[in-house]
Structure formats: C-alpha cells, structure tokens
Design a protein that fits this description.
Elements: E1 2-9, H1 14-22, E2 30-36, E3 43-48, H2 52-63, E4 69-76
Antiparallel strand pairs: 1-3, 1-4, 2-3
C-alpha cells in the first residue's frame, strides 16, 4: 500500500525534518520521497509498505521522534 505522511514542523525546521526523514531509509517501510512543501503542512512523506501496523509504529517511533516534528497525519492511498 501507499501512504502519505503529512508533517507539521516547528518554525524554521522543515528542511531538517525532511533530512531526518530521508535518513530513515531501510526496513519494511520503503521511503519514496520526503518533500518540503508550502501550505498547512511542511513536509509530505510518501512511503510504501505491506503492513499497516508496521507503518503506524514507523510513524510514531521514527518520524515523530525527529527534532522539530510537531504533529503528523497519515493518509493511506
């Protein structure tokens, strides 16, 4: 399945958050892209995985642990 993780970053932290996400490559969640964007969210992360539970843990344990991440919303495609 494909998923998009919408990330809200602290002011001035979007670039470092995107870089932190890009360093998370590997494992059962395949990182496709992590882009800094304008709008209500600061970074959009596109991933692919076969397991929804693994994705949920990856977001909460890995992405939300990155310095500057304030909140995330995950959208399944």
């Amino acid at each position: 399945m494909r998923a998009y993780v919408l990330v809200e970053a602290a002011m001035g932290k979007a670039d470092s958050v995107a870089a932190g996400v890009k360093s998370l490559e590997g494992g059962t969640v395949r990182l496709v892209s992590a882009d800094v964007v304008t709008g209500p969210f600061d970074v959009i992360v596109r991933v692919e995985t076969d397991d929804l539970d693994v994705l949920a843990r990856w977001v909460t344990e890995r992405i939300q642990a990155i310095d500057g991440v304030q909140r995330t919303i995950t959208c399944i495609a």
